[in-house]
């Protein structure tokens, strides 16, 4: 059921891609359903950038033209999410790709999120994924009570280490304040709290239907 919904959301998002576009590809099991939907369309001249080595490998295997992210802007980016709050805040980074995902989303004129019906929540909750700089890691962790490195160790493709913030023990009362605090913490490369201002559309699949 959930896997089928991921495919429904992914297929809806694939229809947004037009010939000649530059398109950012996210990471995860929902995006894994997007790639064959894109490959099945007879699109010409689309240039893709990928947020992770695994998406890149899967996209290339399907014949999609993935290039290094050396473009000043993208027409569109499509990605999944771990949680979607009613006010549009997201938690991302379950797959540990949130640093690149944030860069690609920020570069896109339109960032579209695709999720199954289990992802909308009443309020965001921990864990909040983090990427931490390897340099000075112990001191960064000391500044972040409640943060724990993933085990086994999950290095990012950019040399950071993936961790998760497990506090507070309950809903995140103020995601914007938490995001600002994490942004201001030396050693935090990126976190998985994505603001509504970054997101143009959220496509939520429920059964065979897509809600916007
Ligand atoms: C990876 C992500 C994914 O988009 C998020 O974890 C959702 O994944 P899935 O589509 O497998 O449920 O942020 O870093």
Automatic annotation (TrEMBL):
The keyword Isomerase belongs to this UniProt entry's keyword annotation: yes
Gene source species: Conexibacter arvalis
Pfam families with a match to the protein in the record: Rib_5-P_isom_A
InterPro entries associated with the record: NagB/RpiA_transferase-like, Ribose5P_isomerase_type_A
The keyword ATP-binding is assigned to this record: no
A Gene Ontology biological process term: D-ribose metabolic process
Example of a GO cellular component annotation carried by this entry: cytosol
CDD domains: RPI_A
Name of this chain's protein: Ribose 5-phosphate isomerase A
Disordered, as annotated region: 147-167
PANTHER family, per database record: RIBOSE-5-PHOSPHATE ISOMERASE
Sorted UniProt keywords: Isomerase
E.C. no: 5.3.1.6
Molecular functions per Gene Ontology: ribose-5-phosphate isomerase activity
């Amino acid at each position: 059921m959930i896997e089928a919904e991921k495919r429904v959301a992914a297929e809806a998002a694939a229809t947004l891609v037009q010939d000649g576009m530059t398109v950012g590809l996210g990471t995860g099991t929902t995006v894994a359903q997007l790639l064959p939907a894109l490959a099945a369309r007879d699109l010409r001249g689309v240039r893709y950038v990928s947020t992770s080595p695994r998406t890149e490998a899967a996209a290339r295997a399907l014949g999609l033209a993935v290039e290094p992210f050396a473009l000043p802007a993208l027409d569109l980016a499509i990605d999944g999410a771990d949680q979607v709050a009613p006010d549009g805040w997201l938690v991302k980074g379950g797959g540990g790709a949130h640093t690149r995902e944030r860069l690609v989303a920020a570069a896109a004129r339109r960032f579209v999120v695709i999720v199954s019906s289990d992802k909308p929540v009443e309020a965001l909750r921990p864990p909040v994924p983090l990427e931490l700089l390897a340099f000075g890691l112990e001191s960064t962790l000391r500044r972040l009570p409640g943060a724990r490195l993933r085990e086994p160790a999950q290095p990012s493709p950019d040399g950071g280490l993936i961790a998760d913030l497990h506090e507070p023990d309950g809903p995140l009362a103020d995601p914007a304040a938490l995001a600002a605090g994490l942004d201001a913490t030396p050693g935090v490369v990126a976190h998985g709290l994505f603001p509504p201002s970054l997101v143009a559309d959220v496509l939520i699949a429920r059964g065979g239907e897509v809600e916007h």
